[in-house]
Amino acid sequence: MTNDERITAIRELGYSERQGAFLCLATSTAGIFSAVNTTAFWAGSGAAMRSVSSKERFAKGHVRAHESANRTVIYHIGAKRLFEAIGEQDNRNRRWRQPYSIKIKLMGFDYVLAHREHHYLATETEKLDYFSGTLGIDRSYLPGRIYRSKDGRIKTARYFVDKFPLFLSGAPSAPPPVVCFCYVDGEVRKPSGFDTYLLQYRDLFARLDSFRVVYVAVDQSMFPKAERIFSRLCGGAGRGSNGIPLDPEVRRLLDHFHDRDLLERRQTASFDKRQLDQLSDELREFRGPKYEVLYRHWQRQGEGAVLNAMGLGGRLPGSLTTYLLTTDHRLFGDLCASMKSLPDQRTIPIVDLVRDAVQ
Protein backbone atom coordinates (compact mmCIF):
# COMPACT_ATOMS: atom_id res chain seq x y z
CA MET A 1 0.00 0.00 0.00
CA THR A 2 1.53 3.31 -1.07
CA ASN A 3 1.44 6.50 0.95
CA ASP A 4 -0.93 8.11 -1.57
CA GLU A 5 -3.27 5.13 -1.23
CA ARG A 6 -3.23 5.50 2.56
CA ILE A 7 -4.09 9.19 2.34
CA THR A 8 -6.91 8.43 -0.09
CA ALA A 9 -8.32 5.80 2.28
CA ILE A 10 -8.22 8.25 5.20
CA ARG A 11 -9.91 10.94 3.11
CA GLU A 12 -12.81 8.52 2.55
CA LEU A 13 -13.46 8.82 6.29
CA GLY A 14 -14.29 12.49 5.77
CA TYR A 15 -10.97 14.32 5.92
CA SER A 16 -9.41 16.83 3.53
CA GLU A 17 -6.24 15.96 1.64
CA ARG A 18 -4.04 17.95 4.04
CA GLN A 19 -5.72 16.46 7.09
CA GLY A 20 -5.41 13.00 5.55
CA ALA A 21 -1.70 13.57 4.95
CA PHE A 22 -1.15 14.63 8.56
CA LEU A 23 -3.15 11.72 9.97
CA CYS A 24 -1.34 9.25 7.71
CA LEU A 25 2.03 10.51 8.91
CA ALA A 26 1.04 10.67 12.58
CA THR A 27 -0.67 7.27 12.57
CA SER A 28 2.14 5.35 10.89
CA THR A 29 4.96 7.17 12.73
CA ALA A 30 3.84 7.56 16.33
CA GLY A 31 0.11 7.15 16.94
CA ILE A 32 0.26 10.29 19.07
CA PHE A 33 0.95 13.97 18.49
CA SER A 34 0.88 17.34 20.20
CA ALA A 35 -0.19 20.85 19.26
CA VAL A 36 3.46 21.58 18.48
CA ASN A 37 3.38 18.85 15.84
CA THR A 38 0.28 20.24 14.16
CA THR A 39 1.86 23.70 14.08
CA ALA A 40 4.99 22.29 12.46
CA PHE A 41 3.00 20.38 9.86
CA TRP A 42 0.65 23.20 8.92
CA ALA A 43 3.23 25.99 9.00
CA GLY A 44 2.09 28.67 6.59
CA SER A 45 -1.31 27.05 6.00
CA GLY A 46 -3.32 28.59 8.83
CA ALA A 47 -5.68 30.43 6.52
CA ALA A 48 -6.56 27.26 4.68
CA MET A 49 -7.32 25.45 7.90
CA ARG A 50 -9.44 28.31 9.29
CA SER A 51 -11.59 28.18 6.17
CA VAL A 52 -12.96 24.77 7.12
CA SER A 53 -16.55 25.43 8.09
CA SER A 54 -18.11 22.27 9.44
CA LYS A 55 -16.27 21.20 12.57
CA GLU A 56 -18.92 18.58 13.35
CA ARG A 57 -17.89 16.76 10.20
CA PHE A 58 -14.55 15.89 11.79
CA ALA A 59 -15.78 14.88 15.25
CA LYS A 60 -15.44 11.16 14.53
CA GLY A 61 -13.88 9.96 17.75
CA HIS A 62 -10.61 9.08 16.04
CA VAL A 63 -8.46 11.15 18.41
CA ARG A 64 -8.58 11.40 22.17
CA ALA A 65 -6.91 13.91 24.45
CA HIS A 66 -4.74 12.96 27.42
CA GLU A 67 -3.57 15.63 29.83
CA SER A 68 -0.49 15.74 32.05
CA ALA A 69 -0.14 17.31 35.49
CA ASN A 70 0.83 20.66 33.95
CA ARG A 71 -2.04 20.57 31.42
CA THR A 72 0.18 19.50 28.57
CA VAL A 73 -2.20 17.72 26.19
CA ILE A 74 -1.14 14.70 24.16
CA TYR A 75 -3.45 13.48 21.38
CA HIS A 76 -3.75 9.74 20.87
CA ILE A 77 -4.91 8.19 17.60
CA GLY A 78 -6.45 4.94 18.77
CA ALA A 79 -9.36 4.42 16.37
CA LYS A 80 -9.16 1.05 14.65
CA ARG A 81 -10.82 2.47 11.51
CA LEU A 82 -7.88 4.80 10.89
CA PHE A 83 -5.34 2.02 11.20
CA GLU A 84 -7.43 -0.23 9.00
CA ALA A 85 -7.52 2.55 6.42
CA ILE A 86 -3.71 2.50 6.14
CA GLY A 87 -3.55 -1.30 6.19
CA GLU A 88 -2.07 -1.46 9.69
CA GLN A 89 -4.89 -2.79 11.87
CA ASP A 90 -2.37 -4.66 14.07
CA ASN A 91 -0.02 -1.70 14.45
CA ARG A 92 0.99 -1.28 18.09
CA ASN A 93 0.82 2.52 17.72
CA ARG A 94 -2.87 2.12 18.56
CA ARG A 95 -1.97 1.47 22.19
CA TRP A 96 -1.58 4.17 24.80
CA ARG A 97 1.92 4.12 26.25
CA GLN A 98 3.78 4.86 29.44
CA PRO A 99 5.03 8.46 29.80
CA TYR A 100 8.65 7.83 28.78
CA SER A 101 7.57 5.92 25.67
CA ILE A 102 5.20 8.77 24.80
CA LYS A 103 8.07 11.21 25.09
CA ILE A 104 10.22 9.09 22.75
CA LYS A 105 7.42 8.86 20.19
CA LEU A 106 6.86 12.62 20.24
CA MET A 107 10.58 13.21 19.79
CA GLY A 108 10.67 10.82 16.85
CA PHE A 109 7.66 12.53 15.27
CA ASP A 110 9.37 15.91 15.74
CA TYR A 111 12.34 14.60 13.77
CA VAL A 112 10.15 13.27 10.95
CA LEU A 113 8.26 16.56 10.65
CA ALA A 114 11.56 18.45 10.41
CA HIS A 115 12.83 16.09 7.67
CA ARG A 116 9.83 15.29 5.51
CA GLU A 117 11.96 15.25 2.37
CA HIS A 118 13.14 11.69 3.08
CA HIS A 119 11.54 8.44 1.99
CA TYR A 120 10.47 6.88 5.30
CA LEU A 121 9.83 3.19 5.80
CA ALA A 122 7.17 3.83 8.42
CA THR A 123 5.54 0.43 8.84
CA GLU A 124 6.86 -3.04 9.57
CA THR A 125 5.57 -4.20 6.18
CA GLU A 126 7.51 -1.48 4.33
CA LYS A 127 10.70 -2.33 6.20
CA LEU A 128 10.37 -6.06 5.54
CA ASP A 129 9.60 -5.43 1.87
CA TYR A 130 12.71 -3.30 1.52
CA PHE A 131 15.25 -5.28 3.52
CA SER A 132 14.06 -8.81 2.69
CA GLY A 133 12.40 -8.12 -0.65
CA THR A 134 14.48 -5.44 -2.34
CA LEU A 135 17.84 -6.16 -0.68
CA GLY A 136 17.33 -9.91 -0.23
CA ILE A 137 18.45 -9.97 3.42
CA ASP A 138 17.23 -13.00 5.35
CA ARG A 139 14.80 -12.09 8.13
CA SER A 140 16.96 -13.87 10.67
CA TYR A 141 19.36 -10.92 10.42
CA LEU A 142 16.70 -8.30 11.10
CA PRO A 143 16.10 -6.99 14.63
CA GLY A 144 13.08 -8.91 15.84
CA ARG A 145 11.22 -10.20 18.84
CA ILE A 146 9.00 -13.21 19.45
CA TYR A 147 5.64 -12.56 21.11
CA ARG A 148 3.72 -15.43 22.65
CA SER A 149 0.03 -15.73 23.34
CA LYS A 150 -1.12 -15.93 26.96
CA ASP A 151 -1.40 -19.71 26.75
CA GLY A 152 1.99 -19.94 25.06
CA ARG A 153 0.66 -21.83 22.05
CA ILE A 154 0.94 -19.10 19.44
CA LYS A 155 4.21 -17.36 18.63
CA THR A 156 4.38 -14.26 16.47
CA ALA A 157 7.59 -12.74 15.13
CA ARG A 158 7.63 -8.93 14.93
CA TYR A 159 10.41 -6.83 13.50
CA PHE A 160 11.72 -3.32 14.18
CA VAL A 161 9.57 -3.14 17.30
CA ASP A 162 11.28 0.03 18.55
CA LYS A 163 9.54 1.92 15.68
CA PHE A 164 12.22 4.58 15.51
CA PRO A 165 12.20 6.60 12.26
CA LEU A 166 13.97 4.77 9.44
CA PHE A 167 14.42 6.30 6.00
CA LEU A 168 16.27 6.17 2.70
CA SER A 169 18.45 9.16 1.95
CA GLY A 170 19.29 10.01 -1.63
CA ALA A 171 17.84 9.03 -4.98
CA PRO A 172 15.63 5.93 -5.05
CA SER A 173 17.56 4.70 -8.13
CA ALA A 174 21.29 4.33 -8.77
CA PRO A 175 23.40 5.02 -6.85
CA PRO A 176 21.64 3.08 -4.08
CA PRO A 177 20.22 5.25 -1.28
CA VAL A 178 21.87 5.28 2.12
CA VAL A 179 19.74 3.57 4.76
CA CYS A 180 19.40 5.83 7.80
CA PHE A 181 18.40 4.53 11.22
CA CYS A 182 17.30 6.98 13.91
CA TYR A 183 17.90 6.28 17.56
CA VAL A 184 15.81 8.57 19.78
CA ASP A 185 17.21 9.06 23.27
CA GLY A 186 14.93 10.76 25.76
CA GLU A 187 17.49 10.92 28.56
CA VAL A 188 19.75 13.80 29.55
CA ARG A 189 23.41 13.77 30.56
CA LYS A 190 23.95 10.06 29.86
CA PRO A 191 22.91 8.03 26.76
CA SER A 192 20.38 5.33 27.53
CA GLY A 193 20.11 2.04 25.65
CA PHE A 194 22.17 3.14 22.65
CA ASP A 195 24.69 0.31 23.02
CA THR A 196 21.91 -2.29 23.22
CA TYR A 197 20.27 -0.83 20.12
CA LEU A 198 23.50 -1.01 18.11
CA LEU A 199 24.09 -4.62 19.10
CA GLN A 200 20.54 -5.56 18.11
CA TYR A 201 20.97 -3.96 14.69
CA ARG A 202 24.57 -5.01 14.05
CA ASP A 203 23.65 -8.11 12.02
CA LEU A 204 21.61 -5.92 9.67
CA PHE A 205 24.24 -3.16 9.52
CA ALA A 206 26.85 -5.70 8.41
CA ARG A 207 24.77 -6.68 5.40
CA LEU A 208 24.31 -3.19 4.01
CA ASP A 209 26.62 -1.49 1.53
CA SER A 210 26.33 1.67 3.61
CA PHE A 211 24.23 2.99 6.46
CA ARG A 212 23.92 5.95 8.78
CA VAL A 213 22.76 6.10 12.39
CA VAL A 214 21.15 9.39 13.42
CA TYR A 215 21.36 9.91 17.18
CA VAL A 216 18.45 12.19 18.17
CA ALA A 217 18.42 13.83 21.60
CA VAL A 218 17.52 17.00 23.51
CA ASP A 219 20.83 17.16 25.41
CA GLN A 220 23.81 18.08 23.25
CA SER A 221 26.26 17.02 25.95
CA MET A 222 25.42 13.37 25.19
CA PHE A 223 26.69 13.53 21.60
CA PRO A 224 30.39 12.85 22.34
CA LYS A 225 29.38 9.91 24.53
CA ALA A 226 27.14 8.50 21.79
CA GLU A 227 29.98 8.87 19.28
CA ARG A 228 32.28 6.87 21.55
CA ILE A 229 29.68 4.12 21.91
CA PHE A 230 29.21 3.94 18.15
CA SER A 231 32.96 3.83 17.53
CA ARG A 232 33.39 1.06 20.08
CA LEU A 233 30.57 -1.15 18.81
CA CYS A 234 30.54 -0.46 15.08
CA GLY A 235 34.07 0.63 14.34
CA GLY A 236 35.99 -2.63 14.41
CA ALA A 237 36.13 -6.37 14.97
CA GLY A 238 34.58 -8.57 17.61
CA ARG A 239 35.88 -9.53 21.03
CA GLY A 240 39.38 -10.85 21.01
CA SER A 241 40.74 -8.30 18.56
CA ASN A 242 39.83 -4.96 20.06
CA GLY A 243 37.70 -5.78 23.08
CA ILE A 244 34.23 -5.04 21.69
CA PRO A 245 31.74 -6.81 23.95
CA LEU A 246 29.45 -9.32 22.29
CA ASP A 247 25.71 -9.31 22.43
CA PRO A 248 24.77 -11.77 25.26
CA GLU A 249 22.71 -13.77 22.74
CA VAL A 250 25.74 -14.18 20.48
CA ARG A 251 27.79 -15.28 23.47
CA ARG A 252 25.08 -17.79 24.37
CA LEU A 253 25.12 -19.20 20.83
CA LEU A 254 28.91 -19.64 20.90
CA ASP A 255 28.69 -21.37 24.29
CA HIS A 256 25.99 -23.65 22.88
CA PHE A 257 28.26 -24.69 20.00
CA HIS A 258 30.88 -25.68 22.55
CA ASP A 259 28.36 -27.75 24.53
CA ARG A 260 26.92 -29.31 21.36
CA ASP A 261 30.39 -30.36 20.28
CA LEU A 262 30.94 -32.05 23.65
CA LEU A 263 27.61 -33.86 23.25
CA GLU A 264 28.47 -35.12 19.79
CA ARG A 265 31.81 -36.37 21.10
CA ARG A 266 30.02 -38.01 24.08
CA GLN A 267 31.92 -35.92 26.63
CA THR A 268 29.04 -34.64 28.77
CA ALA A 269 29.80 -36.65 31.91
CA SER A 270 30.52 -33.41 33.80
CA PHE A 271 27.13 -31.87 32.91
CA ASP A 272 24.58 -31.66 35.69
CA LYS A 273 20.81 -31.92 35.09
CA ARG A 274 20.41 -28.18 34.63
CA GLN A 275 23.09 -28.09 31.93
CA LEU A 276 21.61 -31.09 30.16
CA ASP A 277 18.13 -29.55 30.22
CA GLN A 278 19.51 -26.26 28.90
CA LEU A 279 21.38 -28.06 26.12
CA SER A 280 18.20 -29.92 25.17
CA ASP A 281 16.25 -26.67 24.98
CA GLU A 282 18.97 -24.97 22.94
CA LEU A 283 19.17 -27.83 20.45
CA ARG A 284 15.55 -27.08 19.62
CA GLU A 285 16.07 -23.32 19.63
CA PHE A 286 19.25 -23.26 17.52
CA ARG A 287 18.13 -25.52 14.72
CA GLY A 288 17.82 -24.92 11.01
CA PRO A 289 20.12 -24.21 8.05
CA LYS A 290 21.43 -20.89 9.38
CA TYR A 291 22.67 -22.39 12.66
CA GLU A 292 24.08 -25.48 10.93
CA VAL A 293 26.24 -23.29 8.71
CA LEU A 294 27.46 -21.29 11.71
CA TYR A 295 28.19 -24.47 13.65
CA ARG A 296 30.32 -25.83 10.79
CA HIS A 297 32.23 -22.54 10.73
CA TRP A 298 32.80 -22.88 14.47
CA GLN A 299 34.03 -26.47 14.12
CA ARG A 300 36.51 -25.62 11.36
CA GLN A 301 37.85 -22.23 12.42
CA GLY A 302 36.50 -21.35 15.87
CA GLU A 303 34.59 -18.37 17.20
CA GLY A 304 36.26 -15.85 14.91
CA ALA A 305 34.80 -17.56 11.84
CA VAL A 306 31.33 -17.43 13.36
CA LEU A 307 31.66 -13.72 14.12
CA ASN A 308 32.83 -13.04 10.57
CA ALA A 309 29.90 -15.02 9.13
CA MET A 310 27.51 -13.02 11.33
CA GLY A 311 29.01 -9.73 10.23
CA LEU A 312 30.62 -9.09 13.64
CA GLY A 313 34.20 -9.51 12.62
CA GLY A 314 35.14 -6.26 10.91
CA ARG A 315 34.55 -2.55 10.55
CA LEU A 316 31.01 -1.78 9.50
CA PRO A 317 30.29 0.47 6.49
CA GLY A 318 28.39 3.06 8.48
CA SER A 319 28.62 6.47 10.08
CA LEU A 320 27.00 8.35 12.94
CA THR A 321 25.41 11.78 12.84
CA THR A 322 23.73 13.64 15.69
CA TYR A 323 20.62 15.78 15.74
CA LEU A 324 19.55 18.16 18.50
CA LEU A 325 15.81 18.64 18.89
CA THR A 326 14.84 22.26 19.42
CA THR A 327 11.53 21.38 21.07
CA ASP A 328 12.07 21.31 24.83
CA HIS A 329 11.08 17.77 25.78
CA ARG A 330 13.04 17.94 29.02
CA LEU A 331 10.04 19.46 30.77
CA PHE A 332 7.96 16.52 29.58
CA GLY A 333 10.59 14.19 30.99
CA ASP A 334 10.28 15.81 34.41
CA LEU A 335 6.56 15.13 34.31
CA CYS A 336 6.78 11.44 33.41
CA ALA A 337 5.92 10.28 36.90
CA SER A 338 2.72 12.31 36.98
CA MET A 339 1.37 11.73 33.44
CA LYS A 340 -2.21 10.53 33.44
CA SER A 341 -5.14 10.40 31.06
CA LEU A 342 -8.20 12.52 31.59
CA PRO A 343 -11.03 10.58 33.23
CA ASP A 344 -13.39 11.29 30.34
CA GLN A 345 -10.73 10.88 27.59
CA ARG A 346 -12.19 13.77 25.63
CA THR A 347 -12.64 13.33 21.92
CA ILE A 348 -11.02 16.21 20.03
CA PRO A 349 -12.09 17.03 16.46
CA ILE A 350 -8.84 17.17 14.50
CA VAL A 351 -9.87 20.24 12.56
CA ASP A 352 -10.42 22.17 15.81
CA LEU A 353 -7.05 21.07 17.15
CA VAL A 354 -5.21 22.17 14.03
CA ARG A 355 -7.11 25.44 13.76
CA ASP A 356 -6.28 26.29 17.38
CA ALA A 357 -2.62 25.47 16.79
CA VAL A 358 -2.20 27.71 13.74
CA GLN A 359 -4.19 30.72 14.96
Shape by Cα distribution? globular
β-strand number = 10
The unreliable regions are 46-59, 236-244, 335-359
The percentage of residues in β strands lies in: 5-15%
Termini, distance in Å?
A: 34 Å
Q: How many helix segments?
A: 15
Largest sheet: 5 strands, mixed
The proportion of residues forming helix, as a percent range, comes to 40-55%
**Helix/strand structural class:** alpha+beta
Order of helices and strands: HHEHHEEHHEHEEEEHEHHHHHEHH
Major sheet strand order: 4-7-8-9-10
State Rg: 23 Å
**Taking all residues together, what is the mean pLDDT?**
78
Which terms would index this structure?
single chain, 359 residues, alpha+beta, five-stranded mixed beta sheet, three-stranded antiparallel beta sheet, 15 helices, globular, disordered C terminus
Map the helices and strands.
Layout: H1 3-11, H2 17-29, E1 32-33, H3 35-41, H4 46-50, E2 63-67, E3 73-77, H5 80-85, H6 99-114, E4 119-120, H7 124-134, E5 144-148, E6 155-159, E7 166-169, E8 178-185, H8 194-205, E9 211-217, H9 223-234, H10 248-264, H11 273-285, H12 289-301, H13 303-309, E10 318-324, H14 330-334, H15 350-358
Parallel strand pairs: 8-9, 9-10
Antiparallel strand pairs: 1-3, 2-3, 4-7, 5-6, 7-8
Helix pairs in contact: 1-2, 3-15, 8-9, 12-13
